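Sequence in, structure out. Go.
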Amino acid sequence: MGSRSVAKWRWWVIVVAWAYGAAARTLCPARCACDDALRAASCANAGLEIVPIQLNPEATHINLTHNSIDNLLYTFGFYTQLTILDISYNKVQDLGSKNFDNNKEMTHLNVSHNALRKLDKDTFVGLKRLVDLDLSNNEIATINAQTFKDLTVLERLDLSSNKLVTFESDTFEPLASLRILSIRNNSILEIPSANILFIIHLEYLDLSENLIQQIPKHGIPYLKELKNLDMNNNIIDSIDPLGLHNLPSLRHLDLSDNNMTSVPTSALSKLSNLSHLYLSGNFFHNITALSFQSLFHLKHLHLSRLYDLDKIDSRAFVDNINLQKIWMNENVKVKEVPPRLFHGNPKLTHIYIRNNALETLEASHFPIDRLQELEISGNPFVCNCSLLWLWKLGRECEINNRKSDNSSAILKIDYEEVKCVAPEHLKGGLFVQIPESEFGCSNGWVVVAVVVLTVSIIISVVGGVLYFMGPLKKCKGDKSKQVMTSVMLNGDVSKLSNGLGYSTRGREQENKRDVDRYLMIGSSVTNNFHSLNPPWHSVDKNPYYQEDSEEHIYQQFAYETIPHHRTPEKPHIVYV
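Output:
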């Protein structure tokens, strides 16, 4: 009988257990939605204060978001098949110890937007298949060094928006499979290099909105697979030239809204595969030549909200041959765009320069033939003839947009939002509403420019003529003097004709008469001259004659060739 009673009791237990399981499959708490076929239950916004235990014990998906649950102790041991659990937006303050020990199938756990203050040593014991853990938006200040010891296959860990300042050594050592780590919006004072060192397969690291002041040498350890590094909204004022050199695969780097006063060119140049760079909201005073040196794969560059920026070198982007889009909005001190600033970027298609201090633009500033989008509104433009090209381009683009079905191939300009601040009669007027005739310039400066140009041309021509005529005259004068000397010495009149430019024999007699006439005049002048300055006075004693001695030699020759039959007008006195 005893053995029969025991067997009977066991049979009743099996029947009751089966009956309870069957009933559980059909039971679903009020304000919950259950699907036994999918083995899923959702009790979101159900006003629950505790975790319900009457759900299907074979459930794999349970959603308990937006309730008032504050305690998870001894509640999930019933759901051994659970793979996805979402208890976000509750009031949970403690996850307990070994509370998930029976949930060995769990892969996703979301405990975000609760009131957690710490993570104990055995909080996640048993979750050896967990790949996604979201602990964001809590009040976590401390994490035990052994907290993640069972999470060896975890791929995503979100610790953002907590109260973390630092980590114990080796905290992340078990997370060898981690690919995404976010510690955004905490109070981290320095890069947790010693902990990140163990995450060798990390691809995304978010350290934004912390209190990191600098990136020291080897600040980011060697992470050969890291593709995205976000450090915006810190207080970084310096980056060591070797601070980022251990990131050979980095594609996206966000350093916006920090305290840097110059572009960290040396550190950036080590990132040869970088494609997206965010530097907006810093305190750069100027962007110098080759600021983005060696970034040959850079495609998107953000340089907006640089409120101290007032100068951009025309060679700033010459190395960025693959640049496609650039943002330079709200740089309130930038008054001009350097000529041909973007002509070294053959793939540039989108330029955004809204809300700067630009008064004018030139067509040479942009590669118009390649552009797909140009945003320029919010600048204090002076609407005169210097912007007529832009007005015509805007109208042309508008007409093309109406005709073409392929709008992606047509340049888009936000000229409908562009306003004029000058001249006075166009102030506040929309660019698109101003007629073409208003885009004129005063004739005064045109006249002045024409006059100046004309005078410059005249001066250049006259100067050129004088420059070339001077040596020519000298050559002709020297030749004439040589011929005349020969005539006076040798009486060879035939040479005189060549010296004076006559070459025909028919005028030989006339040339001789001219020579006689010249000699007659020369005799008279020579007599007069020598009557005042006797030929025996030494020329060498007068310094003025030394500079022009050749001319006095000619005069001596003329004196000696006076014909004998002519009597001088004044007596020729000779002293013995």
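Check: The chain has nine helices and 25 strands. Residues 1-26, 491-505, 518-576 have pLDDT under 50 and may be disordered.
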